[in-house]
Specification:
The protein is mostly helical. It is 85% helix and 0% strand. It starts with a helix and ends with a helix.
Length: 205
């Protein structure tokens, strides 16, 4: 669909140049559509920017929410909760290691540094539900009851995967190549780290 292509191009352009620096003319040309289609569908650059944020949120939901929803369905035994968390984090790691997250990450990092309504849409549309599901799983896995401690654990675990996209230049300097074997080693290391974090949190007084 031309609309999906337009939004995918917009993610790349806004991620690279930001809202102010991106050109709707360049976006339309790269998407193979007329400038007038941006005005007609989105009202202009700001509307397209927000639609791009919604598109990112929708793609994140499509990839992650079924996994999170399945993980939190029903009562969860502690060890089962750990395995569910590991599945969620492995899915996030695969996204962060894959090529599709490159343009998302640029867009989201810009919004992390200078948040606008676009960040609120991404957070509400995709991040908050994942955070909520993870909080329930962490509580079940560790016995922790302090909401702040649970959120800190979630953020720490997300960071295990996010670093491989947000700090990609540093990662590539350290590991030199990112082939299938290296990706498998990264995912195994993340799994081991997350498991250790959860067991340590379970044993805290």
């Amino acid at each position: 669909m031309i609309e999906d292509k337009l939004l995918d191009v917009a993610i790349a352009q806004f991620g690279q140049f930001g809202l102010e620096g991106a050109s709707t003319r360049a976006i339309a040309k790269a998407a193979g559509t007329a400038m007038s289609s941006i005005t007609y569908h989105y009202g202009g650059k700001e509307g397209l920017y927000l639609a791009t944020a919604d598109h990112i949120a929708a793609q994140m939901r499509e990839r992650l929410h079924p996994i999170v929803a399945a993980a939190v369905a029903g009562a969860i035994a502690p060890d089962d909760a750990i395995e569910a968390i590991l599945r969620v984090l492995d899915a996030i790691a695969q996204i962060m290691l894959g090529p599709e997250s490159e343009h998302w990450a640029r867009f989201i990092v810009r919004e992390q540094m200078q948040p606008t309504e676009a960040f609120e849409r991404i957070y509400a549309g995709a991040m908050a539900p994942v955070m909520g599901g993870m909080a329930r799983l962490i509580a079940a896995a560790t016995g922790q009851t302090d909401p702040l401690e649970i959120r800190l654990l979630a953020l720490t675990m997300f960071g295990q995967a996010l670093v491989f996209r947000a700090a990609r230049a540093t990662v590539m300097k350290a590991i030199e190549r990112l082939d299938a074997a290296t990706e498998a080693a990264i995912r195994l290391r993340i799994r081991s780290n997350i498991h250790a974090i959860l067991i340590a949190a379970r044993n805290e007084p």
